[in-house]
Amino acid sequence: MAAVAAAGADERGWFAVPPPVRELFKLFPLRVYAADPLPARAPDRTRERPRLYVFAREEEAQRGRPSYNPSCLKWQTYLRIAGVDVDLVPSSNHASPSGSLPFLLPSSADLRPAVPLTGGKIACYAQDRSSQDLHDMSSPRLEAYLALLTRNLRPAWSQVQAANPLQLHALYIFPANTPLLTTLYLPSNILLRTPLLHTLRTAATAEILKTTRRPLLSPPQPLADADAAFRSLAALLADDEWFFAADAPGTFDAEVFAYTHLILDKGMGWRDDSLRRCLAAFPNLVRHSTRLYERCWGAAETEV
């Protein structure tokens, strides 16, 4: 009798299932259903071709069009130079294992398990699968010109001079280019767009100051720096087709193109064209941009 009473007490303890719930599960027992198929947009387990995750509009990615982001366009162009066909996937930094785009997932036949590739690893991947010699030169001279792009041209991409030198024009900072910034990087929901716009502008300002090593933003300076960079690049290219008198384009050509093409492309919708007019003063750089576009994408669409 005591044992029966103890059992009843256990059933009425804190972790006991209430009788109505027990009766419910008797009528409707738990059942495990088969997994639903993944949505159409979700990545499948088999990739016939490598996938390059970039900033891009959906329809343009499907057509393999150039990314609107210089970092993404550099590696997209280099893979095309190497003749490596990839599928473009519109993405964002939040989806990247490294926190930034682009990254490349090799095809299922390449690596098991697939490891996301970024930066120089994308270059090695392209070189290993190219039918031509793509082993780019490595020298202090090349590093110096890469630093020129980073310190002089990249800040000008985000910040350019207006007709009024006291007014700041920028992709991220100047209000006239806010529609372009919204189209490229910001969500349509105003509740999300407003704080993100503030975050982007703050981050862009900090990046410009860090790169230029100046305590304050100076509107006239970025365009002057860009002009100096273009002048040096034009002198380096001279009358050659590709930089460093190479027989074929390399990573440096792709890096310069990633800026010059987007600066010259009227389809970008720039409200301020100071940087485009600055670049147009160097015809050999314009021809280089057109030449590389035609090599990788066919008929040129860049206008000056």
TrEMBL record:
Pfam families: GST_C_6 (PF17171), GST_N_4 (PF17172). It comes from the Eukaryota. Residues 70-158 form the Thioredoxin-like fold domain. InterPro entries: Metaxin_GST, Mito_Protein_Transport_Metaxin, Thioredoxin-like_fold. One of its GO terms (cellular component) is SAM complex. GO terms for biological process: mitochondrion organization. Residues 226-291 form the Metaxin glutathione S-transferase domain. This is Metaxin-1. It comes from Tolypocladium ophioglossoides (strain CBS 100239).
